[in-house]
Structures are given as structure tokens and as C-alpha cells.
Amino acid sequence: MDLADRPxxxxxxxxxxxxxxxxxxxxHAVIERNAAAFPDxxxxxxxxxxxxYRQLATEVARAAGVLTRLGVAPGDRVAIALPNCPTHVVxxxxxxxxxxxxxxxxxxxxxxxxxHQIADSGAKVAIAWEPTAARLLTVxxxxxxxxxxxxxxxxxxxxxxxLALKLPVATARAxxxxxxxxxxxGTSRWEELLRDARPVPASYPSPExxxxxxxxxxxGTTGTPKAAMLTHRNLVANALQGQEWTQLxxxxxxxxxxxLSDDVVYGVLPFFxxxxxxLCLSFALRIGATLVLLPKFDVxxxxxxxxxxxxxxxxxxxxxxxxxxxAAPAAGVDxxxxxxxxxxxMPLPTAxxxxxxxxxxxxxxxxxxxxxxxxxxxxxxxxxxxxxxxLGLPFPSTHIRVxxxxxxxxxxxxxxxxxxxxxxxxxxxxxxxxxxxTTDSLVEVDGxxxxxxxxxxxxxxxxxxxxxxxxxxxxxxxxxxxxxxxxEDHLRAMPGIxxxxxxxxxxxxxGERVVAAIVLATDVAAAIDLEQVRAWGEEKLARxxxxxxxxxxxxxxxxxxxxxxxxxxxxxxxxxxxE
Length: 579
Fold this sequence. Notes:
The chain contains 18 helices and 26 strands. The two termini are 43 Å apart. By secondary structure, it is of the alpha/beta class. The protein is globular, with a radius of gyration of 24 Å. Among the domains are: 159 residues, Rossmann fold; 77 residues, Luciferase, domain 3, CATH 2.30.38; 100 residues, ANL, C-terminal domain (GMP Synthetase, Chain A, domain 3), CATH 3.30.300.
């Protein structure tokens, strides 16, 4: 299906342009620009600690000085493994300021997972939360990282809360244990390096728009962890596309929306995830908003922040909206300040969207994207024309094709299902050190570069795109991607398991529940239960990838060439009652 004429433009919300002009500038340029334009505006709010745009620019410059002292040069990779906090924001932009490449890592990853990403990316420096730094130090030599810098998360708290953590009471000790971690003596400390740092001068050269800015790890279609290469231009483009889509961050001369100082974006999605990184770290600061940071999603903490700093824009996954809308009335918290909630990573149920809109008076919008598209590529319009249950419309400056699933150069007839291909300024440059997989994912057609999404869609006459099926067999659980082959490889090595297939089944708030169907070895002495499987999995797998249901089967269905038919396994499980 050739969609060069872009029929979806007629369904755009009022005022949204068909295209955006992407400036030739690095992503971090907005920090200095905002500091000059409105220095006293609040940029960050972390549990009550407030940072102005002037202070943020100063802290980024000092942190950039730290990085140059650590030997970071243009093109060097720097890993960041931190929860959402001011230090994460500062470190992210400092790496970009000196021309480095950010490698975002999940701070809760196991030692082996961290070691793989650090070694694969060739990161020279790792800036990590104390518990994460402790794990990294045990594999520092194998990972090849030269410097591991530990971050004390409590240093980002307001002064009164830091003092409260020292009180000899149980609640203070519990919170302190959650935020701190033991690291060996002699470990480099971020706060100590900052204290002695000199800011990089304004004359220090900045990277170009087409320079690499970020390595964001994703399993893509195969489940093998690999890094998507995103340039400054890719990230700036997606932030601008989001601004055009929402019409936020405009003054009265530019449009009907309120002034910049009224925008408050809630940063509850993890920044190490592409969705949270772009919508919070990039988009929020580009529109000059106040970014309210929460180290993790906690309903009580969210509602307490909402009382103090009413939000206007919430990037989230559907379970977050559901829990907030249900808890707010009992807590006496008003949510009507929120104009938009944009959901991704899993389908947005109509009931959840309706409950959120009833509680806020604003809109719940569904978006679609992938790490390789920086990440947002489609979304429902921010208007009454939105269509729950669809992927929405292509973003400004974004083109799509629907093609034969086997040959991306062959278009399918209008209205028929086919693989979704996407082209636009937000499309990545390829996979880091993976030329063959880059070639498999990117195709050149009609003078454009297209990313193959692996998703099967149908485009309606009005341009709305509806997801029909997944070519990829990954599982979306709680907004995180779980790759069955990775889980299977680890579980297959567990004593007593002969074979295993891992699938996703509908799981309520989780989106999908990870289910392992196992064939027991013939010599197994006793039955294997779910807790044993999860305990074994915890050695290598992230918690969200651990099976939540176990099915014992006598054999696994296979194709004529011996491949396990996961879809048949899933269908069989769906016919049974979950444990």
C-alpha cells in the first residue's frame, strides 16, 4: 500500500503541521538556550528539591568538566546506570556536551547483563547508582570499562530529607537502605569529582547534529541485545515532533496553548527506556517545562507530588493511569490539571482511557514506536478525533508503507494487512557493530530509508493504523520487552528441564504475563514448581522477564523443520485456567 499522499493529514488535530523543520543543532543546545531565555524557571523537581534552568546549565557544565578529567573525548561511550534523578539528567547532557555517546543501562540489571552492554558498547566510563556500581566493579576488567563512578542517590534529595535519613528510626533506616549501597573503598565518587571540577568553557567544541548521541539497547526482532544508534538529529527531531503533536511549549504569539512556564511533565517512566528518555529527558526540557522526577513509579509518591506540583502532561504505560485514577479520589487528590497522558509500550484499554479522562478532564492518547524510531512514530491525535484501539496516525514528517511480510519492496493492496515500514528524521542509523542486522532492518526504497517494524497492520481509509499481529514474538510485560529465546536459553540449562517454550498471555495490568511451558527430563526425581524456576531465572534474568506461570507439558509442538511453534503453545495455554 503506497501512502505517499499521506491521507492521515486530514485527521490531524487543529494546528498540527504536516512536517517539522529539524535544526542543525546538538540535543544539549536547548539547555544553554533555556538558561539564557528563562534562567529562574524550574527545570527539575525531585521530591521537593528544585533546580532552575540556570542551575541545570551550570551543573551540566561542571559535570562535563568531570568527564574531560576522566579522559572522555568526542565519540567515547559513557554508560549511565541510574534511576530517575537530577544526576541522571545532568550526566546525560554532560556526556553529550563533550561529544560523548550515552549508553543507557537499566540500573537493576544483573551483573552479567551490565557486563554485556558495557563490553559491547566499549564504554570508557560508567556512572552508576551505588548498588549498580558495586556489581559493575566485580566485572570491570571483563567489561573493559576504565572508570566506574558511584552515585549516592541521597545527594539529590532536598536538604531536610537528607538530614531525616540520618535519624535513628526504622523508616529512615529502611529508606536509606533502598537508596544507598556499599561500594569498595577507593571507588570514585561522583559528588567528590564534581566538587573539584572546573566547568568546560563555552568555547569547548560541541558535536554536530549528525554525530552519534545515544546507544539504546534493544532486542529488535531476534532477542539478541544490540544497541540502536541514535544521532543528535534523531533525538531532536522526535522531541520536535512531540511538541508539534501536542502543541505544548508555545507562547501566545505562536498558538492558542498556554505559556511555557505552565507545562509540568511527570517523569515516572524510567529514563533508561527509550519512551521515558525521549518524552521526559528530551521533549520536556525542549518545551521549557518543569520535569517532576520520581525515582520509580509509586502511586503514593506520585499523588503527593501532584498535590505539590500539579502536572499537565504524563507519559505513562496504561497500568500507571489505571492505578493513579483509582487511588486519587481516596487520597483527595485533584488530577484535573493534566491535559494529556500519552501511553505506549502496550495497548491502552478503552476502560482505562475512559477512567483517566473522567478523572482529569484531559485526553488519554495512545502512541506507537520502537527504540529504532527514537522512539515515537505514530499516535492518536490530541483531539476528539482520537481512536482508542488503534496505533493512531504517523507523526509529522513521518511516512509509512505497508508491504508484503516476506519482501519489504512489494506493496500490499489498500486495506489489506502487511508489514509496517516507517521513514522519517527519527529513524535510527543502524545497530552498533551489527552490519548484517542493520541491513536486515533498514531498506532503501524510493529514495527513503525505511525501518522494518516486524508488526503487521491494516491502514484504514482515514489513515489510522490498526495493529493486527506481531511478526516478532517478543512479549510486552509491564511495558518492558521480554524476548522468549533469552528466557528459554537460561531455563533450558536448569537441572530437570528437558525443553521449554516461553510465551506471553493476556495478563491484566501487566499487558502480557510471561508463561513457561516446560518438558521435564525423564530422570527428574521430583516435580519442578514455579518458585524453583523463578529462583533459577533470577541468576541471569531481569525480574520482569521471570515466568509468572508454569505449565508442565509432555512435549512441545514443532514445525516440520523442528522449530517450536510458540503460537500453538500459547493457544493451548489460553484454553486452560491460569495457575
